[in-house]
Each structure stands twice: as structure tokens, then as C-alpha cells.
Amino acid sequence: MKCAVIGAGAWGTALSAVLAENGHDVTIWAFEPDVAEAIEDRHENPRFLPGTALAASIRGTTDKVEALADAELVVVASPSHVVRAVLESCHAWTLSTAPVVVATKGIERGTLSLMTDVVSEALPGRPIVGLSGPSFAAEVAARQPTAIVAASRDLAAATFVQSALSSPSLRVYTHDDVIGVELGGALKNVMAVATGISDGLALGFNARAALITRGLAEMMRLGIRLGARPATFAGLTGIGDLVLTCTGALSRNRAVGLEIGRGRTLSEVLASRETVAEGVITTESAMGLAAREGVDMPIVTAVHRILFERQPARWALVELMTRGLRSEED
Fold it and tell me: Which domains does the chain have, with CATH numbers?
């Protein structure tokens, strides 16, 4: 079938490679003309996924009409802060029957909406499927074994996406807890920034384990308040993605935290990077959601203070350790 991938970052490019390998006709839309040209003419994306040879059948374009025309499956992989703007004019060009896969992990600034809700508003009436799970783009593109989740309230749409993406190296499970799956994928990026800061401060493996575990507790508290099921956070899109992003050397969010823990400012770190670390944006949105829902999220608060309130990283983590004593189950 014909597939359109909107967003030619590392993840969008990797998913394009999977779809093409599975025999689908893929056109990927890139915001950057040089990226579209490299995909179209040289069958590579050296800017965002260097070292990966792409199938010659994958088309690259900067024209959304060309990418979306007659597409039977649409994959949205743009950064969270531009998803709504990117899709604003796409409604007229997208088949009403085409399932839309939301591969972006994040929470929209201002509205505090999950990405599936943002896409549903931009492309009303389409079946929406959230895609999440522990998956570094480079490893997926290299055909290393990976398991992810396609979540939707429309089982037929989730099964459709599962079939389109599954391959010998990519195992896709279906799920119906869209809120839990999406929150897990978004909030784990904040926890990865926290563990990166801890590692940058050389606080040790004990501290890292504590941050991951207590971070999961925060994710669950907010998720349950918003209607997610607790068991979802024990799966691939919860603890699975959390562990990968907090410990993996390929994690952009952990890398940002690592540099901040070593003494650089957020502006210095971001100025030196082209790729988006979603955890920075999600920290602001998570703080907003926690305040709105009355949920205690001390790790998110600590990361926010370090990133946006210029609190020294070591002080913020000391404050975490000296909070009032309580039961682990609280």
C-alpha cells in the first residue's frame, strides 16, 4: 500500500525503512530541503540518521500534498512542538479512511494535550493509533530486535498498523490504553533527563536506580489520575521505554541531562544540538499537567527547577533526598 511519513527525523526515517522493507510504497515528507534531496537522490539521511542506507523505493519530498496523495497509511513523526502546525493544512489531502500513526512522543505545550489528541483535532474522523515503546531509531533501522506497541481505541486500526509495521526484527503489540501508552512514552523522557543529570554529577548507580523507580511511580500517579491503567506502566511503553531511555547510550534526553550535570547550561546544550530532546519540552508540559491534576511529581519538579529556574543540579537532587519521609506506597 502507499504510505506517507510526515517528519524525516531519525524515527520517521527508521519507520520509513521498515515500511519499505515490508513491501510498501513510502514517501517521506521533510521540512528540510537538503534532507528530502538526500533521501530522494542518494537514498540516505546523513543529517538525522547517518550510516543507514535507505531503500531506493523510498521517495523524499518537501511537498505534503505529494506525500499524502492517496496514502492508505499516514505516519506522523514530527517533533511534538510542531505537530499541530505541520498537520494544519493536511486534512484536505488525507484519505478519510487512512489510519494515522502517531509516532511522536510528547505533550503539547499550552493545551497539555497528548499527541493522539492533537492529531485527532488536526485530522478529524481518521482512525488514530499511538506508537510507542523502547526503540532507538538507529537500532530499528539496523534491523536489531525491537518490540513496540500500537495503541488505539479502534482495534481494527491498531491491528492494521501492527500488520503494516511488523517484521522479523520489529515485533508490534496492540493495546487499547492510549492514555497510558502515550504518557509512558512522553514522561520517560523527563526521567531520562533526570538520570542523565545524576550520572553527570557522578552520583552512582544507586541514585540512577532510585530515580528510575521513583520516576515510574510519578508516571503512574499522573497516568492513573488521567484514566490510564496501572498495568500499562509495567509494559513496554512504561518500564521498558523508561529503562532504555534512562540508561541507553543512544538516548538524546539522557545526553542532555548528562551535559547539564557536568556543568553546562540548558541554552549551551541546546545550541550545540540539532536534534530535539523531547524531555526538555515535556518537562514544562508535565509540570502543567501535575499542577492541573493536583499530582505530586517531585522528580519532574526538580528537573524543571534545574532546566528553567537555574537551580544548581546538585542542590535540586539533594532536595529530593531530604524530602519528608513517607511510605513507598504513598
Answer: 2-176 (3.40.50.720), 187-321 (1.10.1040.10)
